[in-house]
Automatic annotation (TrEMBL):
SUPFAM superfamilies: AF1104-like. The keyword Hydrolase applies. One of its GO terms (biological process) is DNA damage response. Its EC number is 2.1.1.-, 3.1.3.-. Subfamily III proteins have a conserved RTxK motif about 40-50 residues from the C-terminus; the threonine may be replaced by serine or cysteine. PANTHER family: DAMAGE-CONTROL PHOSPHATASE ARMT1. GO terms for cellular component: nucleus. One of its GO terms (molecular function) is phosphatase activity. It comes from Albula goreensis. This is Sugar phosphate phosphatase. Metal-dependent phosphatase that shows phosphatase activity against several substrates, including fructose-1-phosphate and fructose-6-phosphate. Its preference for fructose-1-phosphate, a strong glycating agent that causes DNA damage rather than a canonical yeast metabolite, suggests a damage-control function in hexose phosphate metabolism. Has also been shown to have O-methyltransferase activity that methylates glutamate residues of target proteins to form gamma-glutamyl methyl ester residues. Possibly methylates PCNA, suggesting it is involved in the DNA damage response. It catalyses: L-glutamyl-[protein] + S-adenosyl-L-methionine = [protein]-L-glutamate 5-O-methyl ester + S-adenosyl-L-homocysteine; beta-D-fructose 6-phosphate = dihydroxyacetone + D-glyceraldehyde 3-phosphate; beta-D-fructose 1-phosphate + H2O = D-fructose + phosphate. Its cofactor is Mn(2+); Ni(2+). Residues 26-425 form the Damage-control phosphatase ARMT1-like metal-binding domain.
């Protein structure tokens, strides 16, 4: 009974069933385009599969493509979502979730691409891409998005050099900085990491989305586009609430739940380096994806590849940054985790019940950054909230520690705005929630007044 009361007070999930909505357009246009690109990528790597696995590799390529073509057809014709059959570590969780979705349908209709929640079916598509490879063992480790992620990294070399230089200059003078100067640099690097989130390949359906300009120089111009800016609350947590003045840094543990590889990941590493070298944090835990995900998301392989590439760069400050990051990983100052929950379709309010081990891990953190749009959608359950609903309400009890979303807006859910702010934006710029032009630094704490 209590459960029913709670359910009734939660808005509907965004879904392609609302014709004309952003969810509808995504499922109708963007997801099939991404599937077509995946099919093309696998096909273009036919020779590589032959070299590595002989005729068996070519047969695997054909079977994977046939499964993906079938998937694209099922998507476009709104067929039921089917149970997974690949029998890997998360298969049961996915199939149980399908049953939960079934229970939510009216008239016993099956869950389907255009009728079920958008968050669920979009995650499911990426998991099905993995299934098509898992079912064809010789090529099961192939990352269909690797080329795009690598390209994004190499095409962003200029800004990467610029921020590595900025970081190394800063590290040289770190001990001489006043509290006010430290705060200034903190805000800059927080914003570099925030705007790094613009570079998302799933939103451009894999099109080039790399960063060209020097990131630190453009921050001032971008400030008006930050719709919610709780940076001062984030700073307050990191300095134990005793700013300004005094040396009362928290020196605790910060977690960063990553979004995209390529340029964005470098901005996150730079920010994490600053947190440690300034003494604001003693430890940073990164959380990435355990499979290729939403085109550009960071996997373990991407994480280590990026650090190796930075170290190997023919640029003094880039290389020095990479060397420092290797040291942080070796001595345990930094660590990387890829819990399978991050690639499930669950709303984060389900984490405590469905992934209690991960929830317990996050409870040990002093501050968790959630990068990007998908994390924001999962934080807010991807529902049709009014723009003035408090962030805490949309979290629906998910509060393992103090947390902060660093997100450029690419999906139509946004809470915690001032009265009239959303309406004004809609009147001026109807696509403000999906263009990636606007951003939020949105904070919530278990101790914050509600
Ligand atoms: Mg992403």
């Amino acid at each position: 009974m209590a459960n029913q009361v709670v359910l009734r007070s939660v808005p509907q999930s965004l879904s392609a069933k609302f014709v004309g909505s952003f969810a509808y357009l995504t499922v109708k246009d963007r997801l099939p385009t991404i599937l077509t690109k995946v099919i093309d990528t696998i096909h273009r790597n036919k020779d590589k599969f032959f070299e590595e696995h002989g005729e068996e590799g070519v047969q695997a390529e054909k079977r994977a493509i046939s499964l993906l073509s079938k998937l694209r057809n099922e998507l476009q014709t709104d067929k039921p979502v089917l149970a997974l059959t690949d029998n890997v570590v998360d298969t049961d969780m996915w199939n149980q979730y399908l049953q939960r979705q079934q229970a939510l349908m009216d008239d016993n209709e099956p869950p389907s691409w255009f009728k079920s929640p958008w968050l669920y079916v979009e995650c499911y598509m990426y998991r099905k891409i993995q299934e098509s490879l898992h079912l064809n063992p010789p090529i099961c480790d192939f990352d269909v998005f690797k080329e795009a992620k690598t390209k994004s990294f190499f095409e962003s070399q200029q800004p990467i050099m610029a921020i590595c230089t900025y970081l190394q200059e800063l590290n040289k003078n770190m001990d001489d900085l006043s509290e006010t100067q430290l705060l200034e640099h903190f805000l800059k690097l927080l914003q570099v990491s925030l705007w790094g989130n613009k570079c998302d390949l799933s939103i451009s359906a894999g099109q080039d989305n790399s960063q060209k300009a020097s990131p630190v120089d453009s921050l001032e111009d971008l400030k008006p586009f930050i719709l919610v800016d709780d940076s001062n609350l984030v700073w307050s947590v990191l300095t134990n609430g005793k700013i300004p003045g005094g040396s009362s840094k928290l020196q605790g543990r910060v977690d960063i739940v990553l979004d995209n590889a390529g340029f964005e990941l470098v901005t996150d590493l730079i920010f994490a380096d600053f947190l440690v070298s300034s003494g604001l944090a003693s430890k940073v835990c990164f959380h990435g994806k355990s499979m290729p995900w939403f085109v550009s998301d960071t996997t373990k392989e991407d994480f280590h590849w990026t650090i190796r590439q930075t170290l190997a760069a023919n640029h003094k400050w880039m290389s020095k940054s990479g060397a420092q990051w290797q040291c942080y990983l070796k001595d345990g100052t930094w660590s990387y985790y890829d819990h399978s929950f991050w690639t499930l379709p669950h709303e984060f309010c389900d984490m405590a019940a469905d992934a209690p081990d991960l929830y317990a891990t996050l409870q040990k953190s002093d501050l968790i950054f959630f990068k990007g749009d998908l994390n924001y959608r999962k934080l807010t359950s991807d529902r049709d909230w009014g723009h003035t609903e408090p962030f805490e309400k949309a979290l629906r009890g998910f509060q393992p520690a103090s947390l902060c979303s660093l997100r450029t807006l690419k999906a139509n859910v946004q809470v915690g705005l001032q009265p009239g702010q959303g309406e004004n934006l809609t009147a001026q710029e109807p696509t403000w929630m999906t263009s990636g032009k606007y951003a939020v630094v949105q904070f919530s704490s278990p101790h914050r007044e509600q």
